[in-house]
Design goal:
Number of strands: 11
Structural class: alpha/beta
Order of helices and strands: EHHEHEEHEHEEEEHHEHE
Number of helices: 8
Radius of gyration: 17 Å
CATH topology: Carbamate kinase
Distance between the termini: 25 Å
Shape: globular
Length: 234
């Protein structure tokens, strides 16, 4: 099978893993995510994943927790999701390896770029947890950074909405749907695709971004095959 992209990094939000539960990991949603990842891996695509952590913890919630501590708590949430994704993949016969930017030796291997590339070459799905390892950076920035480090052909942003719009289509029926944008479009128009640091990093490294809805069955393979199901940013 001929595919458009040979190596991809998928950014999966914590909310996507929680599904309708809105907190924690929904077993059915996790299984769907794992099956779609396995499908493209079996087609010969090298796959890396960055998990968000919003289904467990999202940002500073009070004055009694400072920003760095809150960010570290969020990093731990991404490790929890990474463990879930790794095990879901292993349970369906898809080799996977969780690597973390913060050392948690009994749970995951520490991140090392060369080792991650070796795992990708071996056909393993590499799951990156722990964010960048530093506070003040989002998992969007982590995804942009890791995509550049591993030389991904595209950064796939799995969203709850099927593309980038001029406004929230759930609130504004007249919102314009975009099929293609430039990096400067999302920065200048403040389209909320990802945070500014991540968008700027993608612009500087030339990392293409594709925004699509992961919830629709088979959508990930459609993206890999080059079908127009979302928004390309380049």
């Amino acid at each position: 099978m001929s595919v458009k992209y040979k190596r991809v990094l998928i950014k999966i939000s914590g909310e996507a893993l929680a599904g309708e539960d809105r907190f924690g990991v929904n077993a059915a949603e996790l299984a769907k995510v794992a099956e779609q990842i396995k499908e493209i891996r079996d087609a010969g695509v090298e796959v890396a994943v960055v998990c968000g952590g919003g289904n467990f913890f999202r940002g500073r919630t009070g004055e009694n927790i400072d920003r760095p501590t809150a960010d570290y708590m969020g990093m731990l949430a991404t490790v929890m999701n990474g463990l879930a994704v790794q095990d879901a993949l292993l349970s369906i016969g898809c080799p996977a390896k969780l690597m973390t930017s913060i050392e948690i030796r009994d749970m995951a291997e520490g991140y090392a770029r060369r080792k991650a590339l070796d795992y990708l070459d071996e056909g393993k799905v590499v799951v990156f947890g722990g964010g960048t390892g530093s506070p003040f950076f989002t998992t969007d920035t982590t995804a942009a950074l890791r995509a550049a480090e591993i030389g991904a052909d595209v950064l796939l942003l799995a969203k709850n909405i099927d593309a980038v719009y001029s406004a929230d289509p759930r609130k504004d029926p007249d919102a314009e749907r975009y099929t293609e944008l430039s990096y400067m479009d999302i920065i200048d128009r403040d389209l909320k695709v990802m945070d500014l640091t991540a968008a700027t990093l993608c612009k500087d490294t030339g990392t293409r971004i594709y925004v699509f809805a992961l919830a629709e069955e088979g959508n990930l393979m459609r993206v890999i095959n080059g079908e127009n199901v979302g928004t390309l940013i380049k």
